[in-house]
Write a structure and sequence with these properties.
118 residues, 2 domains, binds magnesium ion
């Protein structure tokens, strides 16, 4: 049985995801090359996808167990994604991003916030 509403599993999976992110920061050439193995012999894109999937599953589990408000989470995710995109723009092209369409919500893309509290 999952303990502590899945919070330990969430921390574990997020930590595994962070480990892969750290490897990609250490080897920046592998950020853009999908099929070249890290010195540990693994393909980091595949591992990052797997650990992101594990983390999303853990997030969804904790949301359900703790009855968290997916509308709040989704709204926050949309604002944060908009901010990241603004930060990612070249300095000479800074413009205010339009408000996202309802279906552009990144949490929906990950299977969050569908069919429960919305
Ligand atoms: Mg994992």
């Amino acid at each position: 049985m999952m303990q502590q509403n899945g919070l330990g599993k969430l921390a574990e999976e997020a930590g595994e995801m962070l480990q892969i992110a750290g490897k990609l920061v250490q080897y920046p050439e592998l950020q853009t090359i999908r099929n070249v193995a890290h010195p540990d012999g693994t393909l980091l894109h595949e591992r990052l996808e797997e650990e992101m999937g594990d983390t999303v599953a853990a997030i969804n589990f904790v949301i359900a167990k703790m009855n968290l408000d997916t509308a709040v989470i989704n709204a926050r995710a949309s604002r944060k994604l908009r901010q990241f995109k603004e930060w990612d723009e070249p300095v000479d092209k800074k413009v205010k991003a339009p408000d996202p369409e309802p279906d552009s919500n990144p949490m929906h893309r990950w299977g969050l916030g569908r069919g429960d509290k919305e």
